[in-house]
Amino acid sequence: MAIEFYSKRTLYSELSNFSNHAFEIDGKHYPTVEHYFQAMKFPGHEQAETIRTADNPMVAKQLGRTRKVPLRSDWEAVKLDIMRDAVRAKFTTHPELRELLLGTGDETLVEAAPRDYFWGCGAKKTGQNWLGKILMEVRDELRNAPVGNESDE
């Protein structure tokens, strides 16, 4: 059985890129995965900083879709790795989220975004579900990773 997630109104909404769980990457604070993902479309440009500091993830998404400046030339080649980095950072920063993700066991995770056939399953349930796939990859990494710093003496 699959576990579907999407918005604040659904069970497992914390799996969403819009969930309010901040993290740091490369010394910068990002309020949500959505902020990071959208900002990475324009690294080194002031647009990235505008997105990083947006009031909420919906505004960050809208700013990332506004093409006032061109997307980075390698965007299609790197976007999955960027999402993977953000998801990993989110779930390693917040122990309660780590436990939530691990608690999904081996269930298939599906972003039930009705209009997104790349990151989600889309309305027809035929989408690629890349966010779900990445969450399951990170879940496997967490399951196999040591907790804490046991090797420190």
UniProtKB/TrEMBL annotation:
This is Swarming motility protein YbiA. CDD domains: NADAR (cd15457). Signal peptide: none annotated. Residues 5-143 form the NADAR domain. InterPro entries: NADAR, YbiA-like_sf. Gene3D superfamilies: YbiA-like (1.10.357.40). It catalyses: 2,5-diamino-6-hydroxy-4-(5-phosphoribosylamino)-pyrimidine + H2O = 2,5,6-triamino-4-hydroxypyrimidine + D-ribose 5-phosphate; 5-amino-6-(5-phospho-D-ribosylamino)uracil + H2O = 5,6-diaminouracil + D-ribose 5-phosphate. It comes from the Bacteria. NCBIfam families: ribofla_fusion. Pfam families: NADAR. The gene is ybiA.
